[in-house]
Sequence to fold (126 residues):
Amino acid sequence: MTDRVKVYFDGGCRPNPGKMEYAYVIAGVAHAELDAGIGSSMDSEWLALIAALKGAQALGLTDFVLLGDSVAVIDMANGRTKCRGDSVPHLAAFRALFADGAMPNLRYIKRTQNLAGIALERARAR
Fold:
């Protein structure tokens, strides 16, 4: 039996709204995008989630969990809260990635536990 792969994601925006950035970490390998366009912190969290899912799919992973610290994005993606405004197209893009399959596991973690947030800070420092 193999362990479920943890896929961490985190987005940021400075100022808000402003220049977006995001990172995701799969099996200890960090991927960061420091110039993801202009938008809000919510937009950057969605971009991070979508990039993380695409990254997991590109690696052919089937048993993984997406872990992030944005309660709002996770609740909308999981269908626990209504998706409105600028988040609607992001939710559609997220769902399109698994339209023919099962919804991926998606869970909230504390910011201090989010390895993608740490990776994003390190990428900014370079």
